[in-house]
Amino acid sequence: MSERERLTEWVEQWAARQTVAPTVVLTRGSGEHLELLAARCPEALIVSWVAEGAVTGRRGRILTLSAVEDRVGAVVRGLLTLGLEVLRADPPARLVTEAPDAASFAAAIAQWLRQARVEQQTLLAAAEGWVEHLEANLPRLLTSASAAEMIGALAGRPLVVIGSGPSRNVLLDQLEGWADRCVLLATNSSVRALVERGLRPDGVVVIEGKNCAADLEGVDPALLDRAVLFTKASTHPAHLDWPIERRAVFLGPADGWLAGWFGRASSLPTGGNAGTTALLLAWILGAFPILATGLDFALGADGNTGRRAGAGAPTEQVMGWRGQMLEAELPFVCYREQTEQVLASIRARDPRARFLSLSDQGARIAGMEVIEWTALREHLPPLAPGSLARAFDDRKRRSTDARRLQQEIAAVLARFEEVADEPLGPAIGLALLSPPSRVLRALAGPALIRQPTAAAFEQVRRRFELLGRRAVELAEGGAGGGQDRASGDGGRFES
Predict the structure, then answer these.
(1) Which of 194, 160, 236, 135 is nearest to 470 (CA)?
(2) DSSP states of 358-370 as a string?
(3) How many helices (H) and strands (E) in the chain?
(4) How far apart are the first and last CA of the chain?
(5) pLDDT in tens, 200-240
(6) What is the Cα–Cα distance from 210 to 204, expressed in whole angstroms?
(7) Which has more confidence, 185 or 172?
(8) What is the pLDDT of residue 315?
(9) pLDDT tens across 473-483, in order?
(10) 335 in Cβ contact with 297 (< 8 Å)
(11) Angle, nearest 10°, between helix axes 454-479 and 438-450?
(12) Residue 395: pLDDT band by 50, 70, 90 thresholds?
């Protein structure tokens, strides 16, 4: 039997085992099996992961990708996130060339699938409201400062990021009498825990699309009078009603097109959680060292404290700071991994950056070290109260630039057209878009997950076009043609 005959036999046996028609077939290696799979699945895209150095690219419905710059991972995660019918076809190693080994292939698929599930849940739960929130927030966003204008505002000052994990309260109890040694940057869900202990947050970070107004309900506004609210542009409108006058806006996945207002440096990879965003903001502010507590990304030692999903929700074992094994809900495994990616990107740009965990109770985070607060606090000199607020007051004025905003909107609309031109449909077009577009993924992803049709995609495009026109009208009404002070790219992360 010839090699082609053996490949044909394997493809036929594989096809006979399938119970659904695939939209995508995921395989590995180079060889004739790609053409045979394409012929056997005439409506499907064939995606093959090939070893580094192999020829990559697209030929009709066959796409070969390598792990260089994680291109294969990004594409497959996108296809899985959008809910397409992806079937795995793993050929025997002897029948293909330039293929990663079977174990690596299987492990990578498992990781991509887990990450895609979390991203899909996020898109379906939150992204549907991003556009509505932007529509409601636009007038107040126009009068807000940009987080990009705060670059270096805390140069050399120590800062503590306060998340909401089980370890948070241990550190807060230790801060009594020493809170003046560092700037306190809290996630919205941690503000109440601070003020109940008489601690005043210098900054509050919110990315939530759901209504979290209750997090600050009943909090004495006087305890927030020196705080700066760092808010994602598409956060729930109720969060802009919190009694925090100083407001600095950053851009999340659905908001990147607003760089004409806020500058590209304001586009941040949030990692899906406020704690990761706070770490990144602390670095942008120039804080040193950057300390953290409550970023546990794991359940407490009892296996239940910190649980967000219901009892019985799937968990994974993760390594703790002390080498102990902890249970973590799947979304938090992904959040930790995304946090590690953000920290690695920062350290590549700024080797001097230092991130220290003040707790050894949670999951180990690559890129961070553990240090005890009691061993550190005496070496930190007292800070003048309100240093972050004063920096904000010195930097907050900014004028919008309607021309640049129009350019950003036009660029997004052009990417819509690229996706619409994909012969295999907009969902595949969105997943294959190169370079990827976080904006399009956030705007169009939910609609395509529910209905991967050209009509659904066109409806999203028209809605975005109307939103863009409204933004330009507001910018022209309040801009005066000024130059955006946030247009610099100091250490920016691309959206």
Answers:
(1) 135
(2) S-SSSB--TT-EE
(3) 16, 16
(4) 52
(5) 999 999 999 899 999 999 999 999 999 999 999 999 999 99
(6) 16
(7) 185
(8) 87
(9) 988 886 433 33
(10) yes
(11) 140
(12) confident
DSSP SS3 for 327: strand
Which pLDDT value is given to residue 339? 94
Separation in Å, CA 154 to CA 183, 250, 283, 291, 294 = 9, 17, 9, 14, 22
Q: Using alpha carbons, select from 214, 233, 194, 210 the residue that is nearest to residue 471.
A: 233
Q: Does domain 3-115 have CATH number 3.40.50?
A: yes
Handedness of CA 437, 439, 440, 445 (dihedral sign): positive
Q: Name the DSSP class of 329.
A: E
Tokens of 412: 């997004």
The DSSP code sequence of 110-158 is HHHHHHHHHHHHHIIIIIHHHHHHHHHHHHHHHTSEEGGGGTTTTTT--
Q: Are 48 and 24 in contact (CB under 8 A)?
A: no
* Domain residue ranges of the chain, discontinuous segments joined by +: 3-115, 144-395
- 76-97 burial, b if ≥16 CB within 10 A, otherwise e? bbbbbbbbbebbebbbeeebbe
Return the closest-CA partner of residue 405 out of 475, 481, 464: 475
**409: helix, strand or coil:** helix
Structure tokens at 252: 């999340």
Instruction: List the one residue out of 81, 102, 92, 89 whose CA is nearest residue 45.
Output: 89
Q: Which residue's structure tokens are 């909090």?
A: 219
Residue where the block lists tokens 């100083």:
246
Closest CA to 473 of 135, 128, 144: 135
Which tokens go with 390? 């004063």
Three state DSSP letters for 16-28: HHCCCCCCEEEEE
What gap in Å lies between CA 237 and CA 270, rounded to an integer? 19
**If you search the block for the tokens 């296809």, which residue do you land on?**
79
CA–CA gap between residue 167 and residue 300 (Å, rounded): 8
**pTM score, whole prediction:** 0.85
